[in-house]
Design goal:
Strand 4 (122-127), helix 4 (137-145) and strand 5 (154-160) form a beta-alpha-beta unit. Strands 5-4-1-2-3-6 form a 6-stranded mixed β-sheet, sandwiched between helices. The chain starts with a strand and ends in an 8-residue tail after the last strand. Helix 2 packs parallel to helix 6, helix 3 packs parallel to helix 4 and helix 5 packs across helix 6 (190-203). It has helices at 29-40, 54-69, 96-113, 137-145, 168-184, 190-203, 210-213, 218-222; strands at 2-9, 15-23, 73-80, 122-127, 154-160, 228-232. By secondary structure, it is of the alpha/beta class. It has a single domain, classed as 2-Layer Sandwich (Nucleotidyltransferase, domain 5).
Length: 240
Amino acid sequence: MIIYFDESYDNDRNYILYGALFVPPSSTLHQQVTRIRAETGLGGEIKYNRCKNNAKLAVFQKIVDAFMDDTAYFRCVVVDQHGFNYSGFGRADEPLALKQARAYKKFAEMLLAKHVSRIENAVFLADAMTRCWGDEFLEKMRECFNPSGGKKTFRHLAEVSSALEQYQCLQVCDLLLGCVLNNLKPARKEPKNQIRRYLCKCLDVPNLLLTTWKDIPLAIAKNPSTKFNVWYWSEKKTPR
């Protein structure tokens, strides 16, 4: 199993999203993306923010199709920053940036915990362009999921560049995560809105908002056969 991890947020930082794309050994997603690149002549990264015209939209729809047909599955958590209280992540005299880094680690841990309980010897790859490595994120994830004397969830953890073709599944993670953010903050560029609508159509859901996902049982959210799940974080809710 390879788990690709990424984050996204809007320009005003009203929402922070953490996403994980789970790619089991049976997956051929990487090969399918390579095929789509060759057939369409697509260059550069597959990123939500690059879906700016109809030509890119048509290619990115093929990427969504490849994801839907594959055994890979996607999970994300949305953290609403309106009134979010970081006081529980450090002392009053500590800088906000440090508290945010701790919160980043905690949400990543909560997002993954329910989905890796039966996984061993996996690979964890996080986008090197993320913003919170100052809190030794990878080392803390290693401590959490590879406890001394306990089960080793990950045999390898690394931050990698999503721009490299060998990590293009991380680009797919970015695209899916961007679609969730788009439903919260629709874009001025209509192709970005259209790729989100296309994903919703493929998933057979009305939208990617809280109203669609709030009542999904945890057992269904945890099941690898469940293609997609969005967890809107609440202090009163169990992690999805």
